[in-house]
């Protein structure tokens, strides 16, 4: 496949560019300059710019959309990075008849949901964002739905947990997504045969998972790693209990709140 990866210079974008290039033709897009060893074509620009989006999407088969601010920010920056950019890419996909988007959503789209005392949370719970970042991801998922219904673009919304090389805090026992499983998840999302929009949770096969992995398995994502294998190496912190109260962890804590028109970064 010819795959456009937006946010290609970010941590996950760099990881996926290198690993997906083994099987696919890769084109990267980022506001940062191309790395000297990027494994494919590269376009420097902002996907929220419709001309840039049009050029980047042309002659591709699918879009892996990772671009956007990777943490909380002011509302205007979030809308520009996560909503306007997504709309520009989807519109370009319509013009170039590109039929698959893999969208980096987030657990923060449902982050204010209380952690269940037992069992796991499914993808069918209502949106409950914990931040403006989460609002941006909810809006991005809404755009996927609109473009599926109006234009027949099939998409997978990856509600990513904590993508790290190894688990770092105790919350990661539930939320960790290993680099190997992240690659396998995106590969499955690119190649699965379905119509419409599928939301899946982007975590590894963690024995203490908070989220249901069955929607991912239904499109061919079969994670192999388990954060529990690293439990003995994780520190115990005073904030662990508070971060485990809601699905969004630290984003859902009262002190994480900010005003919408505060500084964008």
Reconstruct the topology from this structure.
Elements: E1 2-6, H1 11-20, E2 25-30, E3 41-44, H2 50-57, E4 62-65, H3 75-96, E5 100-106, H4 132-151, E6 154-160, E7 162-163, H5 172-175, E8 176-177, H6 179-191, E9 197-202, H7 214-218, H8 240-243
Parallel strand pairs: 1-2, 1-4, 2-3, 4-5, 5-6, 6-9, 7-8
Helix pairs in contact: 1-6, 2-3, 3-4
What's the CATH class label?
Alpha Beta
The description of the largest β-sheet is: 7 strands, parallel
Could you tell me the number of beta strands?
Answer: 9
Radius of gyration (Å):
18 Å
Catalogue the unreliable spans. Answer: none
Q: How would you describe what is shown here?
A:
Helix 2 packs across helix 3 and helix 3 (75-96) runs parallel beside helix 4. Helix content is 32%, strand content 16%. Strand 5 (100-106), helix 4 and strand 6 (154-160) form a beta-alpha-beta unit. The chain has a single domain, classed as NAD(P)-binding Rossmann-like Domain (Rossmann fold), CATH 3.40.50.720. 47% of the residues are buried. By secondary structure, the protein is of the alpha/beta class. It contains eight helices and nine strands. The longest helix has 22 residues, at 75-96. The strands form two sheets. It has a seven-stranded parallel sheet with strand order 3-2-1-4-5-6-9, sandwiched between helices.
């Amino acid at each position: 496949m010819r795959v456009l990866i937006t946010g290609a210079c970010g941590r996950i974008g760099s990881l996926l560019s290198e690993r997906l290039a083994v099987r696919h033709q890769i084109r990267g897009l980022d506001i940062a300059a191309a790395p000297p060893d990027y494994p494919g074509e590269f376009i420097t620009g902002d996907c929220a710019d419709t001309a840039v989006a049009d050029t980047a999407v042309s002659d591709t088969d699918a879009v892996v959309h990772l671009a956007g601010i990777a943490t909380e920010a002011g509302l205007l920056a979030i809308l520009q990075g996560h909503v306007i950019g997504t709309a520009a890419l989807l519109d370009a996909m319509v013009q170039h008849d590109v039929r698959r988007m893999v969208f980096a959503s987030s657990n923060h789209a449902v982050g204010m949901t209380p952690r269940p005392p037992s069992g796991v949370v499914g993808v069918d719970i209502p949106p409950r964002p914990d931040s403006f970042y989460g609002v941006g991801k909810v809006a991005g998922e809404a755009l996927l739905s609109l473009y599926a219904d109006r234009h027949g673009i099939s998409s997978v919304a990856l509600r990513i947990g904590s993508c790290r090389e190894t688990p770092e805090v105790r919350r990661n026992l539930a939320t960790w997504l290993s680099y190997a499983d992240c690659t396998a998840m995106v590969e499955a999302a690119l190649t699965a045969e379905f119509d419409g929009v599928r939301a899946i949770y982007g975590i590894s096969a963690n024995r203490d998972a908070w989220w249901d992995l069955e929607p991912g398995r239904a499109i061919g994502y079969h994670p192999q790693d388990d954060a529990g294998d690293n439990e003995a190496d994780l520190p115990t912190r005073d904030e662990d209990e508070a971060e485990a109260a809601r699905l969004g962890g630290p984003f859902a804590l009262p002190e994480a709140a900010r005003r919408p028109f505060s500084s964008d970064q």
